[in-house]
Write a structure and sequence with these properties.
Layout: E1 3-4, H1 7-12, H2 15-22, E2 29-30, H3 33-46, H4 51-82, H5 84-91, H6 109-118, H7 120-137, E3 145-149, H8 155-163, E4 170-174, H9 178-187, E5 196-200, H10 203-209, E6 217-223, H11 232-244, E7 246-255, H12 258-288, E8 300-304, E9 323-328, H13 331-336, E10 347-359, E11 372-373, H14 377-382, H15 393-400, H16 411-414, H17 423-434, E12 447-450, E13 455-457, E14 460-468, E15 476-484, H18 489-496, E16 503-505
Helix pairs in contact: 3-6, 4-5, 4-6, 7-8, 11-12
């Protein structure tokens, strides 16, 4: 058991709160009843007998787009090397004329219905996982005004409303596909306590219709859309536009593929470089004016997943940063995504890459293990008393033969085929409010990220951790951590229960 050296460290973390704060991953996510019921109603209204064929065609189209994007990225990279002046001219384009997603896939009503039936639950689960972690890392953050770029059918809107059900007041959706806009409005039809929602076909249309003083949003989301942009220059242009519309937090989510992870890494580097350059210019201007002040609102730092703001340690390593969220498949997914022969499993794993920025300077916090010392297993065994080793066999037998009461299976909570009363929506919101977080990981540099799934080898736990090596979070490294029970039973116990995507204290 850990003993605390200083009172300040004792007030910050204990071995129990360490495990609670580090837990960021979620088990098998169940899509909310509201969303499953809306998806089923929408598909039923479409009444398309060839839905399964449309789902297969949609999947093939996604594969074709990935191949085209890979070729475009390679071509753009060669142009940037061969003709730097051309890249400088392209970087001045703050507004692109063509809409995104114009490389071969146009969403019409059939493709939209296939997307809702097959892909929307998985996209929702990834967005919900990311936004849930933002909420845990920023407990004081409650967005009232949200911008969803590439909104599609509203997966991010559903996830945002589940994570912050009480704070949302206004949501702006940017989606050029009219079919998807209609589908998104149909899915939220009849829902209670909705915020004010406006839809736009492009960022240009949004900026024209909104006053300059009202363009800033507390939260800006771009999920599963940057990969559809035809070139690196267009992605940088869009991300800079989104960052200009961000007042507090910007979240980017892409598929958990090497291509998606590469896009996130590029946008990460660009935003951090751009803000560091602005800070340097501001400091020079202040020094010339005889001022020695630092604007706390200037700059940017990473909320998640990176524990630092330095260069990504996975660059040129052959590995890529991504995570996974398991979700229980909805009835529409089980029907229309059925493969040849055997039926699909009852769950699927959605792999995703993401980044969450926040404006300002990274807060300076003490590291979670500061002032804490841990006893070795030998020291713990030496402190045991003889009476602690005595076993009451009667109590032991009673514990082994204790009958666990049968818990009735709740079909309403796990099957979207069941019609639910309107009151169930309110019950779910009440349960969410009752859920309390015992502890949260601060944004200092003392929390590393478990990048890949931990491996248990005998009494050892091996973990690959991305961590900060400086107190201010300016530099990071990728390390292989081995925890043994003999040296540190407390952290070994935590390591055995850690999952891919959890935090690790330093």
């Amino acid at each position: 058991m850990a003993s605390v050296v200083t009172e300040t460290a004792q007030k910050i973390f204990t071995p129990e709160t360490l495990r609670s704060a580090a837990k960021q991953s979620k088990g098998c996510l169940v899509v909310p009843v509201r969303l499953r019921r809306a998806i089923k109603r929408y598909i039923k209204e479409q009444d398309d007998p060839h839905m399964r064929r449309e789902v297969m065609r949609l999947s093939e189209s996604f594969c074709e787009i990935k191949e085209v994007n890979l070729q475009l990225a390679a071509t753009t990279s060669r142009e940037l090397v061969e003709d730097p002046m051309k890249s400088m001219e392209g970087s001045k384009r703050w507004k692109i004329k063509s809409g995104y997603g114009d490389i071969g896939l146009e969403y019409k009503d059939r493709q939209t219905a296939a997307y809702i039936a097959s892909r929307m639950p998985a996209n929702y689960s990834a967005c919900y996982r990311v936004l849930s972690e933002v909420r845990r890392r920023l407990p004081d953050f409650s967005p009232t005004k949200v911008l969803d770029f590439g909104a599609g059918t509203g997966s991010a809107l559903w996830a945002t409303r589940e994570v912050w059900p009480q704070s949302l007041e206004k949501v702006n959706l940017v989606e050029p596909s009219q079919s998807m806009q209609r589908a998104g409005r149909s899915l939220i039809q009849g829902m209670k306590n909705l915020p004010i929602i406006h839809g736009y076909g492009s960022i240009e249309a949004l900026t024209k219709k909104i006053k300059k003083s009202e363009r800033k949003h507390d939260l800006v989301i771009a999920s599963y859309v940057l990969g559809e942009l035809p070139s690196l220059q267009d992605r940088i242009t869009i991300v800079r536009q989104l960052w200009d519309l961000t007042q507090d937090v910007l979240v980017l989510v892409e598929p958990g593929t090497p291509h998606g992870s590469n896009i996130i890494s590029q946008m990460r580097s660009h935003i951090l470089w751009m803000e560091k350059r602005k800070c340097r210019k501001s400091m020079k201007a202040n020094s010339k004016a005889g001022k020695d002040l630092v604007d706390l609102k200037s700059g940017a730092y990473i909320v998640a997943p990176c524990p630092h703001d330095g260069r990504c340690p996975l660059e040129n390593s052959g590995k890529y940063c991504h995570f996974v969220q398991r979700l229980q498949r909805t009835s529409s997914q089980r029907v229309y995504k059925r493969s040849k022969g055997d039926p699909l499993r009852g769950f699927e794993d959605e792999k995703f890459s993401y980044i969450a920025f926040r404006r300002g300077q990274r807060p300076q916090k003490p590291w979670p293990l500061d002032g804490m010392t841990f006893e070795t297993l030998k020291e713990q065994l030496a402190k045991r008393k003889p009476e602690d080793l005595v076993i009451d066999y009667e109590d032991f037998i009673k514990m082994q033969t204790e009958i666990v009461p049968y818990k009735e299976y709740d079909r309403a909570a796990n099957d979207s085929d069941v019609e639910i009363d309107a009151d169930d929506d309110e019950d779910e919101e009440e349960n969410e409010e009752e859920e309390e977080e015992r502890a949260h990981a601060d944004l200092g540099g003392g929390w590393g990220r478990i990048i890949f799934s931990p491996v248990r080898r005998g009494k050892q736990v091996h973990m690959d951790v991305c961590r900060s090596v400086t107190r201010d979070g300016s530099e990071g490294s990728f390390e292989h951590v081995v925890m043994t029970k003999s040296k540190n039973p407390t952290l070994h116990h935590q390591a055995r229960r850690s999952l891919w995507g959890d935090l690790w204290p330093f």
